Amino acid sequence: MPDKNMRFLVVDDFSTMRRIVRNLLKELGFTNVDEAEDGQVALHKLKTQHFDFIVSDWNMPNMTGIELLKAVRADQQIKHLPFMMITAEAKRENIIEAAMAGASGYIVKPFTAATLEEKMNKIFQTMNK
Amino acid sequence: MSDFGGMEELLQDFLMESTDLLSDVDNKLVELEKRPEDKALLNDIFRGFHTIKGGAGFLNVGPMVNLCHRTENLFDKLRNGELHITPEVMDVILDATGIVRDMFGTLGQGLMVADADADVLNALDAVLAGEMPGKAAAPAPAPAPAAVAAAPAVQAVASPAPAPAPAAATDGPDWNALHQAIVPQAATAQPAPAAAPAPAPAASAAPAAAVAAVVSTPVQELLPAAEHIPAAKPASKAVANKQPSSAGNSSGPQENTIRIDTVRLDMVLNLSGEIGLTKNRLTTLRTEILQGNRDGNTLRSLDEAISQLDLLVGDLQNAVMKTRMQPIGRLFQKYPRLARDLARQLGKEVELVLSGEETELDKTMIEDLNDPLVHLVRNAVDHGVESPEERIAAGKKPQSLIQLTAEQVGDHIQIEITDDGKGMNPDALRRKAIEKGLIDQETANGLDEKQCLQLIFMPGFSTKDQISSVSGRGVGMDVVRTNIQKLNGRIDINSLPGEGTRISISLPLTLAILPVLVVRACNQPFAVPLAMVREIITIDPNAIQEVSGKPTIVVRDEILPLRTLAGLLGWEPTQKPYFGVLMQSAEKSFILAIDSFVGRDDVVIKPLQNIRPKGVAGATLSGDGSVVLVLDMEDLLSSSDGTNGQVRTSELISV
C-alpha cells in the first residue's frame, strides 16, 4: 500500500484544475499536496523541497509539462520521482513523447478518482518491482 | 436545488476563472477580425477553449465540452492553416462563444445546461468538414441530444472512431496498452505487455510493444514504427495534426503578480518619504509667500525645494521602473534545450551560446518577447544552419554555433541571434516572393539586397516548400515583426551567404515611457515615436520630384515618398510644410511632411477611453499642460494607404 502521507506536487496553470486534482487525491486519502502554476515554479519547488509524486498538466505557459518532465529526468536529485502526465489530448504523438521523456503514467481528462487510483497503483506496482 | 451537489464551490471557481478566460478570448476574437492570420492570437484562443473544455469535463458539463471541443478543433485547423477565417466562420465562432457565455450564466445558477443549439453545432461541423471533405475531419456525427446529457463526459469528448476500448481510453490508440508500454520502460527494459491486464484489442497491443522496443532509439526511427498504431483508426489522424508547440503554449494569459527585490521596494518607499518631506517644505513656503513674504531668501528656498522635488521625482520614476525590470536570462534559459532538441530531431549539431542574461528588461516585454524569440531560435536551427555533412563540405566545423546575446546600449536593449550557417541568398528570396505572388516582377527588380532580406517579414512568406513538423508552425516571421513593433522595437537582418545570418532586435527599456518627437501640423502638436525617426530634413520645394504621380524626395540616392501629416490625418492643410521627418517603419521609409517642430520629449501615454481614432495611440500632457496626441504611425499608414496621404505635388510647391 502506498504511504498516505506521501507528498504530491500538482502542476497546472488553471487553478480550478489544480483544485480538482487535489480533491481527487483527497478522495483517495492523499492529503499532503502542494501546487505549482507552471513548470518553472514546479521545478523550483522540486529542487528546494521534498516531494514523492508529481502530477502535471501538459499544456501550460512558461514551461510545459513535457519540458518539466524532461527537466526532472535530467536532474540527479529528483530524476527518480514518479511523474503522472495529465492532458486533454489523447494523441499518439503526445503519449509517445511522454513515454520517451520518461513519464511514469499518462491520464486523459476528464477522469474520476477511480481512474486516477488505477493509474497510480500501476505506477506504485512498477516502482516496487 | 443545485444540479452540482458537493461541487458548488468548485463550480464557482471554475466559473470565475473561465469567465475571465472567455473575456480574454472575446477580446482576442475582435483582434482576430483585424488580423485573421495571426497565429499567436489563434493559439491563444485555441488554448482558451481547450482549458474551458478540460474544466467542464470534470464538472460533467457535457454540452459545454461538446461545444468547446468543436470550437477548439476549428481553431486547431485555423492555426494550422487548413481553414481560414471568413466572415461566415467568424459568425459561427462568435455564436459558439456567446453560447458558452450563456452556459456560464446557467451554471452560475447551479443548473445543468442544455445542449447547445443544434444549428450552431451543425454550423461548426459544417465549417470543420465543409472545406476539407474526405479527411474525416469532423467530429463524430453529433449524438442525439438526450444521449449527450446522459452519457459520461468521456463520451461527450466524442471520438470519431467508436473505439471498442476499455473505459479510460477515449479516441485514438488504445491508451491502456500504450500505458503498459510506457511503464515497463520506466522501470526495466522488460519487453511490453504480455500480461497486460487491459483487454486490449490485439491489433493495437502489437504496435504498442513495438513502441516499447524502440523507445530508446531516436525519434526518426521511432515514428515510422509508431505509424502502425493509428493505422487501424485513420480518423484519429485528422485530430492528430495538432501538436502543441512550446511556442504556442507559452503565450498564455499574462501573470498579474510580480516578485520584487526588497531592496528595490525599500528604495521606492524611501523616495516617496523624501518627496513627502519636500512637499511639506513647499506647503510651508506657499503659506509664507501667500502672506506676502517674498524676500530673496524665501524665493531661493522655493527654488531649492522645487529642484529637489525634480530630482526626487526622477529618482522615484527610475526606482518604480526598476521594480518592473527582470533579467532576460529568465527567458533565455529555456532556449538551449529547445535548440538542442530541435537540432537532434533534424540531425544537426548545434550549440546555442547565451550571453548577457543579466540584462534587465520590463517584465511585460519579457513575456511578449518569448514567442518571437522561440521562433527565431527555431528558425536559426531549422533554416539557418546546415547539416554536419554540408558544413564539412563547405569547409566548416561540423558543429554550428548560434549565439543569443542581450546587451543594453544607451537607452535601448539590443538582442541578437547570430548563426554561422549558410546565410540567405537575396536572389532566392526575391524569386520566392515573386513565385508566391507577394510582389510583382517590377517591384522585385527594384529591391536591393538589404530589401530582399526584408521580404521574409511578409505575411505568407516561407522559404521551405513543405512545412516541416519542426518549424512552419506557430508564428511566422511577419508575426515576429508585428510583436516586436508592438513593443516599440525594431528588427533588422544581416546576412552573408556562406557565413551566416544575424537578426538584431532593438527594444526600448520600458513601455511605460516613450521617447517622442513633438511636431506641429494644422496648428496642433502631435507626438511621433522617436524610435521611428531617422533624421529631419527641410523640404525644398524644388527638390520634390513626381514619380508615377506621387511626390518624392531623393535623400542620399534613396527615393522616398512624401506624405503630409495633415493629409494622413485627413485634415485640410493650413500651410505648406517646411520640414520633413524621415521615418523608418520596418522596410518602409518615407518622409513625413510637417509644419514645424516643438522638440523631443519623454512621455507617458494615456490611452483614450472608449474612443479609438485612427492612427492615435493615446494622449499625453505637454509641459505647459496642453494635450498632445501620440500618433501610431503603423496604424495611420495602414488606415490611409489609399489616397489620403498622397497629396498632389502642386500642393507642396510654392507657385
Automatic annotation (TrEMBL), chain A:
Name the Pfam families for this protein. Response_reg
PROSITE patterns hit by this protein: RESPONSE_REGULATORY
- InterPro entries named in the record: CheY-like_superfamily, Sig_transdc_resp-reg_receiver, ST_Response_Regulator
Q: Which residues carry this modification: 4-aspartylphosphate?
A: D57
Q: Which SMART domains match?
A: REC (SM00448)
Response regulatory domain ranges (all copies): 7-124
Q: Which domain of life is it from?
A: Bacteria
Metal-binding listed as a keyword: no
Q: Which UniProt keywords apply?
A: Phosphoprotein
GO BP, sorted A to Z? phosphorelay signal transduction system
What protein is this chain from? Two-component system chemotaxis response regulator CheY
UniProtKB/TrEMBL annotation, chain B:
Q: According to its UniProt record, what is one Pfam family this protein matches?
A: Hpt
Source species, domain of life: Bacteria
- Which keywords label this protein? Kinase, Phosphoprotein, Transferase, Two-component regulatory system
Q: Does the keyword 4Fe-4S apply?
A: no
Q: Per the record's keyword annotation, is Transferase included, yes or no?
A: yes
Q: At what positions is Phosphohistidine found? A: H50
> Gene Ontology terms, cellular component aspect?
cytoplasm
Instruction: Give residue spans, biased composition: Polar residues.
Output: 242-257
Q: Which GO terms describe its molecular function?
A: phosphorelay sensor kinase activity
Broadest EC class assigned to this enzyme: transferase
| Signal sequence coordinates | none
Q: Which residue intervals define the domain CheW-like in the entry?
A: 513-642
- Ranges for the Histidine kinase domain? 270-511
**Which biological process annotations from GO are given for this protein?**
chemotaxis
Q: Which residue ranges does the record annotate as region Disordered? A: 234-257
The EC number on file is 2.7.13.3
What PANTHER family does the record point to?
A: CHEMOTAXIS PROTEIN CHEA, SENSOR HISTIDINE KINASE CHEA
Name of the protein described by the UniProt record: Chemotaxis protein CheA
Taxonomy-wise, where does this protein's organism fall, top ranks first?
Bacteria, Pseudomonadati, Pseudomonadota, Betaproteobacteria, Neisseriales
